[in-house]
Automatic annotation (TrEMBL):
GO terms for cellular component: adherens junction; membrane. PROSITE patterns: IG_LIKE. The keyword Repeat applies. It is a single-pass membrane protein. This is Nectin cell adhesion molecule 4b. It comes from Mastacembelus armatus. The chain crosses the membrane at residues 336-359. InterPro entries: CD80_C2-set, Ig-like_dom, Ig-like_dom_sf, Ig-like_fold, Ig_sub, Ig_sub2, Ig_V-set, Nectin/Nectin-like. Residues 29-136, 141-225, 234-319 form the Ig-like domain. It is found in: Membrane. SMART domains: IG, IGc2.
Length: 415
């Protein structure tokens, strides 16, 4: 019956029931929801009844582009539930009592599930009630990054390409300190591409060039990590270990320090433009002398390295000293000890020289003093001797006997 033909008392009773019976969810007649593809989607529908009212049947519909409706699933309070057509096995009621809680679940949502849905509730005795839900299905972006191997000296060109597809269309950006430019292009189907271009230099090799993918379905941008690859020709330098070479030196080496990318794997050594001297072996980037150094090991040594970009070579003029220096050098501690010992020995020698000079000076002063005293004593003795001689002479002149005798003695001496 229509409302016009219903008894007045019945219409009044229905109005009273409508006051107490209503949808718990969704509260509004029209609701919009978003869901992610390949995730579970829940379409809410819960009609709450009061005493004297009963939900007889629940039916979910999806509106088609031509305006018609496609029946998805139905639940009857006595006959159970039924799934229809292509939805069979893809949808189910959330509750085991769908006439009480009529929410619909889509366990694995597909892009084709996007659209408008209707939850139709049939009650007794109050008739039918509906809720309309518009579902938008987002596709999380599928992204990729295609790096390009560059070579030093090339012109300005693309270094990496980042691509993404999703709903809504993702946004792309770059995280790098490299001096370059990028350009974004959007195509049909919800895909976008970003091209990062620069002028390749060897100092850029290994630098960060990450792509960031932005999408409303992601809590934070997705990072695709990438490092720029710039190849460049090798370079080489030779160093001698140790730096001073002399005849008899042991465990001497020439080291070829190699640059370039990719790093060269093979190193070629030459000597005076030809074969290496005997007793010498190549170990990686080293030229090792397995014997003591000879004078004729002098000469020009060459190191040649190659990679797939170019060739690098260098030369080193080695001069061997003619005389053996024995063990030269030493650790800083040994040198300091030698300096301390030498300084101590020098100080000791200076002290000894000073002591000898002081002693020598003392003895010379003393000898001079003794000479003076001896001279004075000698002069004093000579004076005493003369005085005694004068006295004896005077005494003889007064005694006649002594005089004759003296004369006789004097005469004898003359003879």
């Amino acid at each position: 019956f229509s409302n016009e033909h219903r008894p007045k008392s019945t219409r009044m009773w229905r109005m009273l029931l409508c006051v107490y019976a209503d949808f718990v969810e969704p509260p509004q007649p029209d609701t919009s929801l978003r869901s992610l593809a390949e995730s579970q989607t829940r379409l809410p529908c819960h009609y709450k009844v009061e005493d004297g009212q009963k939900v007889v049947q629940v039916t979910w519909y999806k509106e088609l582009p031509d305006g018609s409706k496609d029946q998805i699933i139905t639940a009857h309070f006595m006959d159970g539930h039924t799934e229809f057509g292509r939805y069979s096995g893809r949808v189910r009621f959330e509750s085991s009592s769908p006439t009480e809680n009529s929410a619909l679940l889509i366990p694995s949502t597909e892009e084709s599930d996007e659209g408008s849905y209707t939850c139709h509730i049939s009650t007794f005795p109050n008739g039918n009630f509906e809720r309309h839900i518009t579902l938008t299905v987002w596709l999380l972006p599928i992204s990729s990054l295609d790096p390009v191997t560059l070579v030093e000296g090339q012109s300005f060109r693309v270094a990496a390409t980042c691509r993404a597809v999703g709903r809504p269309i993702p946004r792309l950006s770059w995280d790098t300190d490299l001096p370059g430019q990028f350009q974004n292009r959007t195509s049909e189907g919800g895909s976008v591409s970003s091209y990062y271009s620069l002028h390749p230099l060897r100092g850029m090799n290994g630098k960060k060039l990450d792509c960031l993918v932005w999408h409303p379905g992601l809590e934070q941008p997705r990072r695709i990590s990438n490092s720029l690859v710039v190849q460049y020709p090798p370079d080489a330098t030779i160093s001698a270990v140790p730096s001073d070479w002399y005849v008899g030196l042991e465990k001497a080496e020439l080291v070829c320090d190699i640059g370039g990318y990719p790093k060269p794997q093979n190193v070629t050594w030459t000597w005076r433009g030809g074969a290496l001297p005997d007793g010498v072996s190549v170990i990686g980037g080293k030229l090792a002398f397995g014997r003591s150094i000879r004078l004729n090991d002098s000469g020009v040594y060459g190191c040649v390295v190659k990679n797939n970009v170019g060739v690098g070579k260098t030369e080193y003029v080695l001069t061997v000293a003619g005389e053996s220096k024995g063990k030269t050098g030493g650790s800083p501690d040994d040198n300091l000890l030698l300096i301390i010992i030498g300084a101590s020995a020098g100080a000791l020698v200076i002290i000894l020289v000073i002591a000898v000079l002081l002693v020598n000076r003392y003895h010379r002063h003393r000898n001079k003093k003794l000479e003076i005293e001896l001279s004075e004593k000698t002069q004093e003795i000579n004076n005493l001797s003369r005085q005694n001689s004068f006295r004896r002479l005077n005494s003889v002149s007064t005694d006649p006997r002594v005089q004759v005798h003296t004369c006789t003695h004097t005469h004898y001496n003359k003879q």
